[in-house]
């Protein structure tokens, strides 16, 4: 079935009240056309979303991360405090809001657990924080299931996937063109192998191990658990704690109800929180349903923000197929360990990679005053630096095809389309973390802390410096830049 989109309004030019989209589900069938009416457009809401993040008091050429995330970070400090163990990431906020809502009409399990959770706030018999933690952990599977399924329904209703697939197609095409241009780094044999692999990277919309996001199975699991939900609160908490003590993450996988309920945190970061990931073994990438929510994506956002945030993340994941661990293998079928890059190309790749190792290794994290391990974060650095460029090129091609027009956001008219793209990218790594959490990230996480991750990738890219007129050798426009997938 052929799917394509005809947009009756042009971004930035359609009526301020509402627009409509024609989706032709089968180009060979005239009766396949369907008109989808959009909800009334309120660009003030989109402006408010930007106001929640940007700190205009910060010079974007001095610290673009704080410019893009500063106000959001201050808000998190007011809400959650500023202690050594704090770990608030922007990717978690939609789920946290959803978790605190009402689900009476969606799930009886969620309704009951939400009611018992409120009792924790009033208890004098139990430690409030421990009570909340026990109930929240126990309810995570239920809330995750509801969160993902509700998001999926909204996305299907809004035809988000059609927009996303068009974005992916454009990003993939930019990468194809880029590979063809890299004659000075990769020889013809290597480039042909890269193109072969790129052409077989699959975007998977359907994911979730062991039906973990099936509401009926979720309700059945909680019913079979044998937990007495209407026992006195102290008895309920003790019963949950006892049942959890019997669960072993090495034995309880997501095929069992006990595994789904007590080991669900193992898949939260992949399937629930706003995220995307590349599967190195089967050469595909997926995007979580929450990624189709603000601030990463909205069909009512300017495409500059959509490409800057979600487009950047998509391009980042595609780029992982060609990072320092994966660029020299097919990672497909029976040839998963077959090297398909010539030694000449390997040498050039490694020479270019050294620049990133040294550059990131010179970065000092502001909370801990610790240096970043450039080798540890190399793969993510390559994906960030290359993905940013692919998303930018794809957006600029879209903008050109749309007559240079994009949606204007009230209060932000002074920003160009290019600047809004980079603001979208800057918002994609906002986090509020304490010293202890940040130290752990530096020591073991392959992702650099958000501030370094954002600032270094953007400062390496000349179109960013040009967009904000950053003086040469300012923090965000160093004379010496690292480039592997130079565009």
UniProtKB/TrEMBL annotation:
Gene Ontology biological-process entries: protein processing
Key words of the record: Signal
MF terms in GO: metalloendopeptidase activity
Name of one Pfam family that matches: Peptidase_M13
GO cellular component: plasma membrane
Keyword Nucleotidyltransferase: no
Residue intervals of the Peptidase M13 C-terminal domain: 275-484
Cleavable signal peptide: 1-19
InterPro entries in the record: MetalloPept_cat_dom_sf, Peptidase_M13, Peptidase_M13_C
PROSITE patterns: NEPRILYSIN
Name the record gives this protein: Peptidase_M13 domain-containing protein
Species of the source: Strongyloides papillosus (Intestinal threadworm)
